[in-house]
Q: What sequence folds into this?
């Protein structure tokens, strides 16, 4: 472990819950930011309708061959 000596300064019974708790808080804040700053995400959760893809234009007719 690269930073194994950190546990000589911070007790693992204190440090691990603080580390995992801070990761949890950051994840909740990111999810809240996504939910409050986008219009598509709440619609996605509610099962909003999907816009139909635009129809492809018809291919142009080939010119008549001369004989």
A:
């Amino acid at each position: 472990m690269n930073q194994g000596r950190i546990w000589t300064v911070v007790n693992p019974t204190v440090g691990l819950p603080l580390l995992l708790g801070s990761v949890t808080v950051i994840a909740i804040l990111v999810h809240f930011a996504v939910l409050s700053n986008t219009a598509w995400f709440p619609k996605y959760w509610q099962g909003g309708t999907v816009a139909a893809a635009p129809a492809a234009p018809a291919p142009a007719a080939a010119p008549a061959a001369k004989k």
Remarks:
- The radius of gyration is 28 Å.
- Residues 12-37 form the longest helix (26 residues).
- The mean pLDDT is 82.
- Residues 23-48 form one domain.
